[in-house]
Structures are given as structure tokens and as C-alpha cells.
From TrEMBL:
One of its GO terms (biological process) is positive regulation of cytosolic calcium ion concentration. InterPro entries: GPCR_Rhodpsn (IPR000276), GPCR_Rhodpsn_7TM (IPR017452), Prostanoid_rcpt (IPR008365), Prostglndn_DP_rcpt (IPR001244), Prostglndn_EP3_rcpt (IPR000265). This is Prostaglandin E2 receptor EP3 subtype. The keyword Metal-binding does not apply. It comes from Columba livia (Rock dove). GO terms for cellular component: plasma membrane. The chain crosses the membrane at residues 23-42, 54-81, 96-118, 138-159, 186-211, 239-265. Keywords: Cell membrane, Disulfide bond, G-protein coupled receptor, Glycoprotein, Membrane, Phosphoprotein, Receptor, Transducer, Transmembrane, Transmembrane helix. It comes from the Eukaryota. It is found in: Cell membrane.
Length: 352
């Protein structure tokens, strides 16, 4: 068993328990700070018009926090066990629990981001309809429906549509690609990838529509009343946060989802990746396993980065950043002017 763990450590590179432990701490701190800040903003009187959006942010931060609490400790335990999953999970029940959490807390942020994008589009494109039909209660029901749907989907392998098994390099579990249930596994994997890509497409399309609407309204900025300008500032802040979260989702999840679809269409299995060490005689298979593991790790960063987008992309910090950029720009301009004047003086003195 120790030799097997050593081989797993070698195949993964110089990755120690410090990495998942550091990521877990950063993710927990960011999500807790985001939750506290959202609650404070939700209670503020001047944020009445964006309470539905704040509820979406709260749901996203809470989902990421729960994902960190339920997934990261298992990964850390596996690393401490020298990457030997059988040592801590002889009954395989923990693997099923881990795979379920990977599915649920993978799709939930994607769907919540889509709900946020649709909510902002409705608020900006159809403000009168939004004001009369949308409220916090409706948003909460939508969030609850999304969570129940994804939880039901994550339970499909438990009832036979797919199978959660240990994945290379032995530190995580997800749906198997073995030949014993190949059709069922492919169906589950296909639905997972299609749901993820669909949510990304909805998010991007809604954001583009929202940006186009905001740009057209900015042309009439001079005729806006004070309340309209305040609403514009609130909308701009939420839009920036929404775009930031959307970019994080695209960067973190697009490689994994696209690779999963590519594997499905090319009938590629990752079953060979379960060997330790990997088959050194086939560099193509080695590359597939390594790229897939990198894509999974990149997707796991989403839970860590989401809250910091909300924490950093706020009006207060954005205004400070703009002030700093303006000061630097003015300083550079003044230095350039002084340098130009000095060169002109030297040129005149030389001519004289």
C-alpha cells in the first residue's frame, strides 16, 4: 500500500496537502465575508431595488461555502492518507457522497449564475414588468427549484443511471466510464455537460443583452433624474459583479465541459487512468488523463474565486481604483509636461 501511494504522489507532481488546505481556507474566508457583506447590503434601505440580485449572490456564496465544507476535507484526508482512497473509504460510501457533491456543487453555481443573468436582464429590459411580477419570494422559489432539480440529477447514479467511482489520481470521485455500464454512464455524463454548457450560454446571452441595454441608456444620461442616476449606479455595480462572476465561470468550467463532450463524441474512456503509475508506453493516454485532471482542478477553483469577485467589484473599491488611476495618469502627464518643458529650455539654450 505505501508503494502504491508513492506512485500516486509521483504521477501527480509536487502537489502536497498544503495546496488543498490553502485553497479551502481562502475559499471559506471569501465566502463567509461575502455572506456577511450581502446580509448587510440586503438590510440597507437604499438597496431595496436589488434585493433579488443580493439573494442570488447569497445563494451563490452559500452554495460555494457548503461545497468547500463538504468536499475539501475529504480531499485533504485522502492526501494525508498518501492518496490511498481505499484506506479511508473501504465501503465506497464516501466515494458516492463525494461524487454526488461534485455534481451538485458543480452545477449549482452555473445555474445560479444563469438565474442572476436572467434576473438582471428582466430588471433592466422590462423594469415595469419586473417591478410588478418579480420579488424576493419569487427569486427564493426559483433558487429552491434549481437546488432540488440539481440534487435530483445528482442522485441518478445512486439509483442506477451511472456509477460514482474513484478517479485518477485517486483523490476524487465522479461518474465512471467503465464498460460495465457504458451506456448509462455516457447518458449521465452527456446530460451533465449539456446542462453546464446550456447554463453558460444563457448567462453569456443575457449578459450581452443587458450590456447592450445599459449602453443605449447611457446615451440619455444627461436627461436622467437623480433617482434614475442612482438606479444607474446600482445597476452598473451589479452588472460589473455579474460579468466578473460570468467570466470566472467560463474560464473555470468551459474547458472541463468541452472536454467531456469531446470524450463522449470520440468515445474516449478514462478507465485507463485508474492505473498507477500511468501507462508510460502511451503518451497520448497520459496526456488525456493529465489534461482532464487539470480541467477538473480548474473547475474546482470556481468556488474559491466567486466570492472575491463580489467582494472586490464594489462601487467603493471601484471608485478608489478610478481615483488611483486618475492620480497616476495626472502624475504621469505632469511629469511628461515638465520633461518636455525642460527639453525645450535646453534646446533654446543650445541654440543660443
Amino acid at each position: 500500500m505505501p508503494e502504491n501511494g508513492t506512485e500516486r504522489a509521483a504521477c501527480c507532481g509536487a502537489v502536497t496537502v498544503a495546496f488543498p488546505l490553502t485553497f479551502m481556507v481562502i475559499g471559506l474566508v471569501g465566502n463567509i465575508l461575502a455572506l456577511v457583506l450581502v446580509v448587510r447590503c440586503y438590510r440597507a434601505k437604499d438597496n431595496q431595488q436589488k434585493r433579488s440580485f443580493l439573494l442570488c449572490i447569497f445563494s451563490l456564496a452559500l452554495t460555494d461555502l457548503l461545497g468547500q465544507l463538504l468536499i475539501s476535507p475529504i480531499v485533504i484526508a485522502v492526501y494525508l492518507a498518501n492518496r490511498s482512497w481505499d484506506t479511508i473509504d473501504p465501503t465506497h460510501n464516501l466515494c458516492i457522497f463525494f461524487g454526488f457533491n461534485m455534481t451538485v456543487f458543480g452545477l449549482c453555481p452555473l445555474f445560479i449564475a444563469s438565474v442572476m443573468a436572467v434576473e438582471r436582464t428582466l430588471a433592466i429590459r422590462t423594469p415595469h414588468w419586473y417591478a410588478s411580477h418579480m420579488n424576493v419570494r419569487v427569486t427564493a422559489l426559483v433558487m429552491l427549484g434549481v437546488c432540488l432539480f440539481i440534487c435530483a440529477f445528482g442522485l441518478l447514479p445512486v439509483i442506477g443511471l451511472g456509477e460514482y467511482t474513484v478517479q485518477w489520481p485517486g483523490t476524487w470521485c465522479f461518474v465512471s466510464t467503465s464498460n460495465s455500464q457504458l451506456t448509462r454512464n455516457l447518458v449521465f455524463t452527456s446530460i451533465f455537460a449539456l446542462l453546464g454548457i446550456l447554463s453558460l450560454v444563457v448567462t453569456v446571452v443575457c449578459n450581452l443583452v443587458t450590456v447592450e441595454t445599459m449602453v443605449s441608456r447611457c446615451r440619455n444620461k444627461a436627461t436622467m433624474s437623480h433617482s434614475s442616476k442612482q438606479w444607474g449606479r446600482i445597476t452598473a455595480e451589479t452588472l460589473i459583479q455579474l460579468l466578473g462572476i460570468s467570466c470566472i465561470l467560463l474560464i473555470c468550467w468551459a474547458p472541463l465541459l468541452i472536454m467531456m463532450l469531446k470524450m463522449i463524441f470520440t468515445n474516449t474512456s478514462l478507465e485507463h487512468c485508474k492505473g498507477f503509475p500511468l501507462d508510460t508506453q502511451n503518451p497520448d493516454l497520459q496526456e488525456i488523463c493529465s489534461v482532464f485532471l487539470t480541467a477538473v482542478r480548474l473547475a474546482s477553483l470556481n468556488q474559491l474565486l466567486d466570492p472575491w469577485v463580489y467582494l472586490l467589484f464594489r462601487n467603493f473599491l471601484l471608485e478608489k481604483f478610478c481615483q488611483l488611476a486618475s492620480a497616476i495618469s495626472k502624475c504621469s502627464t505632469n511629469q511628461w509636461k515638465e520633461r518636455s518643458i525642460a527639453l525645450a529650455e535646453e534646446s533654446r539654450q543650445t541654440e543660443a
